[in-house]
Amino acid sequence: MTTAVAGGRKHEMATYSKGLEGVIATDTKLSFIDGEKGVLEYIGIPIGELASHSTFEETVYLLWNGRLPKANELAEFNATIRKQYDLPPQIEAMLKQLPKDAQPMHAIRTLVSAMGLIDQKPNANDLPSIREKAVKLLATTPTMLAYFHRHRSGQPFVRPDASLGLAENFLYMLNGAKPTSTMAKALDVCLVLHTDHGLNNSTFTARVIISTLSDIYSAITGAIGSLRGPLHGGANEGVMVMLNQIPTVAAAEAFVNDKLAKKDKIMGFGHRVYKAYDPRATHLKVLAKQLAQDTGNMDLYDKSSAIEQVMATAVAAKGIYPNVDFYSATTYHCIGLPLDLFTPMFVVGRIGGWSAHIIEQLADNRLFRPDVDYKGPHGVAYTPIDRR
Ligand code: CMC
Fold first, then answer.
1. Ligand 1 mean position, distance from CA 271 (Å)
2. 110-155: per-residue pLDDT in tens?
3. Are 371 and 2 in contact (CB under 8 A)?
4. Superfamily for 54-179+199-228+354-363?
5. Fewer Cβ neighbours under 10 Å: the N or C end of the chain?
6. Residue with the nearest Cα to atom 6 of ligand 1?
């Protein structure tokens, strides 16, 4: 559609799409999504392959370098991350001052932003500097979360163990005991599945911010703010709240039908891009079932399954299927995460993707500055205050 834009200029090519639906705003070599076929690939590798064979750290290397690492490169990358697990003392001191009743998403957003305060060159956007800062954020965000949780529950901090991978070390710092290999692997798989996902809202936010040649701390702080929303990463907590509201498996059908009748959204369903089953949900469904069986939480899995069946009859024809957040709720619960750490866990995984997009944006930057279709009045006379 041709449209008049601010300043009176005419853009013959300008198209209007509310919410930028269907608009291609940049190009990327990082992740590919076919929403009709339910395909997701990172650097061309199907997500199921990575979830089955890779680790979170290796997946981040893949996205940051455009290829899988050789064994020595992965060992070096792992060592670089592990060396930086613990928090800088100023950040730890700040964390101890945070209100204990603060929500973890607000805590992690604040602490990531604060990392810019103690960086001697916070605005350096050359590639080596950005990679260095990205590794620091990747390594420290799990520690921020684990320490914040222990701070609010009055428990002493458990220092990181550099012999452990990122997911395993996080659960160790959170609980004060080494997790079973099944739990550590399950969390690692969740992080792989959450690492990147095209130009989703938070990734777009990060790219918009860095496109002003701002800094990585500002870009990732903004992205965390975006991810928190219930229409984006916040939906995984919404799913758990919903599962807790449904007393029994038998009550699921009436609960969902009642919500649909009121035109309420069912959390964990639907997607702007997928009109087929989200491939991440396919993987998480299997994982959730296995963990639910292992931990005596089959009621949660069965309730989820019942909700999915009702939705399949009611709305699948509209292309609404479970998304990544639906079965991740049961998965995180079975891993033993408190409900309000579900979305922060998404942050930990997505730092890998946001950083990759920041690197990609800086390599071929163009300021994001869309036009707007002005609908207001023109030429209005200024009314003095005593005559209004
Ligand atoms: N439950 C019931 N109906 C739905 C749902 C849902 N979860 N999602 C979409 N619909 C219906 C919606 O009511 C509309 O119906 P109609 O055409 O009859 O009015 C139709 O499907 C299109 O919905 P929309 O809201 O215009 O579609 P969208 O592209 O803006 O929505 C969405 C995408 C994710 C915001 C939406 O599906 C939603 O709100 N889902 C629930 C929240 C959620 O699970 N978010 C996580 C998204 S995946 C992870 C991530 O990227 O963060």
1. 6
2. 999 999 999 999 999 999 999 999 999 999 999 999 999 999 999 9
3. no
4. Citrate Synthase, domain 1 (1.10.580.10)
5. C
6. 265
